[in-house]
């Protein structure tokens, strides 16, 4: 059975889509932690950032550049935003399909919790 984000990427489960092309999909997080909280995912299943290979370098760049483009489009380019990949248990990864969190719209503390 495909994972949750594979099912969202295939359209089987609905999501509030922000951007889509042949390689990546961006959609609003169902439990937003900031006024803007978008997840940018590869359409192809990759479980964690530990599973990325050299062949995925352009794809990872596309995830990051898509996040930057959405942040700019939503008016947060100059104010600032945060991009996060959580990997495995101690980082709090709950969905094992690589996703880049894009958070913006409030001051984001550092260090994170
Ligand atoms: P993680 O904790 O793995 O880094 O992040 C998973 C994220 O996926 C969480 O922020 C969670 O709110 C979000 N999420 C979980 N299930 C769904 C869903 O069905 N739809 C959407 N849009 N987001 C989800
Ligand atoms: Zn998947």
Layout of helices and strands, plus pairs?
Blueprint: H1 4-10, E1 17-20, E2 24-28, E3 36-42, H2 57-73, E4 82-84, H3 88-91, E5 100-104
Antiparallel strand pairs: 1-2, 2-3, 3-5, 4-5
Residues 3, 5-6, 45, 97 line the site of zinc ion (ZN).
Model description:
The chain has one domain: HIT family, subunit A (2-Layer Sandwich). The chain contains three helices and five strands; from the N terminus they run H-E-E-E-H-E-H-E. The protein has helices at 4-10, 57-73, 88-91; strands at residues 17-20, 24-28, 36-42, 82-84, 100-104. It has a five-stranded antiparallel β-sheet with strand order 1-2-3-5-4, covered by helices on one side. The longest helix has 17 residues, at 57-73. Zinc ion binds next to helix 1.
């Amino acid at each position: 059975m495909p994972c949750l984000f594979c099912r969202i990427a295939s359209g089987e489960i609905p999501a509030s889509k922000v951007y889509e092309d042949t390689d990546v999909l961006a959609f609003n997080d169902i439990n937003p932690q900031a006024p803007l909280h978008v997840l940018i995912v590869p359409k192809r299943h990759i479980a964690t950032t530990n599973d990325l290979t050299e062949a995925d370098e352009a794809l990872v760049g596309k995830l990051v550049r898509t996040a930057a483009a959405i942040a700019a489009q939503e008016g947060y380019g100059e104010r600032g935003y945060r991009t996060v990949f959580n990997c495995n248990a101690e980082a709090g990864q709950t969905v094992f399909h690589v996703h880049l969190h894009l958070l913006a719209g409030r001051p984001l503390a550092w260090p994170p919790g």
